User: Fold this.
Amino acid sequence: MAANAYNGDMDPELAALLGTAGSDNSPLPDFSDIFGEKNKDDFADISSSSGGDVDMSASEFPQVTKRLEDKGHAFFNDPNYYKSALSNEGEIAQRVHTILQKYLTSKDPKDRSVFRMQFISPFWEFLFSIARKATGRLQPCKKYLLRFGLLHPSFLNPEVREFFSKIIDDNTLDQPIYYLDEWLNGIGVSKIRPSSTDEVRVSKGNAQTKVQALLEKAQGKFDGSRVLLKTREKEREEIEKILRDRMSAVFERTPLNEYPEVSDCLNEGQKASISEIQNLFKMMMKNDHELEISIRDFINAQADVEHLKDKLEAEGGAVAVDTGAIDTEWGTIRQMAKMTVGRQGNHFPVLTSEYFHSVPNEVATRENIVTMLAKIESIDSEAYCRIYKNRLNRIVPYVLLIPTYGDMGFCWEPFDRYNRATSRGRIIVPMYPRNLYLAVLTAVADLRWQVAKEKASFYWMEEGLTGHYYQWFQSTRQKGDIKEYFIRDYILWMTKEAEGIQKLDKDVRGTFWRHMPFTKAVKEKLKNRSFVYQELYQRDVNRSMSDGY
Assistant:
């Protein structure tokens, strides 16, 4: 390598290749000593993340009142940003720098294409080096490199750079939506369980391995029982609050005008409150019975965990694994990044103005994702719901935001394998799609399909949503992947049928209407649009009057 490979400012022609030439007069980073000394002021706290326990008492998403900060931070104006991003990462960072320089300086389109492909694999290896440090404190440049794929601020024009500097860092909405650096931190500190798709090999004997597996299952059961216990307690508090309000209203007295020493009789509202109080007492008794069961389950699950921990300790401690949690998770993330883009998509892993063409509302920031998830729930009322013990629980999935130019979101885990009752599903959304709503819709559609399929288990081709859809798929002699057909139809269901535009087969429409019901507001709107929806609405009315609904 030439001795001056890292010296001097980036040539203006390089910026021109990325569409940023002449757009900014700010100095570019100095590449000298890029792999040398460690910066003294290079550490910053990682953003806090949320979303551990599931609050099943929540019925909707919080209102997004602020999408961006009023004033952006200054990290992207740091002339040493690129230098700091590559520093202290060893030989792989040097390799990334070398190939990047060749890619940017190449004049021949064929050579440029070759260098572009050669850059992708080393860059992901370089990111892996940074990912391993995500459990600690990352430099801002390394954090934003993981979070946004932003390797060099000058790769973006000033307007785009300012937009990214205003993206809110912290999870102020308290939703289980994670940027990549936050997700890796959660995995590394055991706040989030590693993806079950990771096959982690163990290095101890069979007895210890079996105890470890039993402990993980018991821990999942314990987590589920704890969430249910908290839910029952919140239900009791809500019932008691309403009961106090109604009883307080009943005890209010109004003196008679003719005889002030005597109070008037109960008014109609107070009589209605008495009737409601009777129902509230019944609800309280039911809740108390469920709470008693939940307490017993919680105590038993806790005892099982403690017993298995003691047993595992007697066997010699926790089972050692060949690689750490972040190492194994990273392999999954790498594959998922490819899947969001697809075979024919743009796999270039760096954020540049050459490829970034999204408007602010189409970028998968945490605030935009909450808005999209809320929009979906305003149409598909049970999009994030699962039934457990005859109770419909709203469980918002984990959402991982990954910095790719993909267009497809998807679900890679419908729920935790050790806690099917209350654990969150997991969906992934690319940060720079052409249409963010469609990217989120594909992910939710995939989640819908997998949850329904897991619920039906061996009978997924016969029962429920997947069973009815499969029977239609077979009867109409469709070819291809049934899940891809379902996702396509779900998008039509949410974007066209919800507006009264009939695009689906009659049988599919009937299946979706029954098993993926629109919200009441959407149904009320559609019933007046055409006879087709009016008939489906009337079926709902008939079922509600029967015992089998």
Remarks:
- Residues 268-314 form the longest helix (47 residues).
- Residues 1-51, 198-205, 319-323 have pLDDT under 50 and may be disordered.
- The beta strands are 177-179, 385-388, 391-394, 398-402, 410-413, 426-430.
- DSSP finds 17 helices and six strands in the chain.
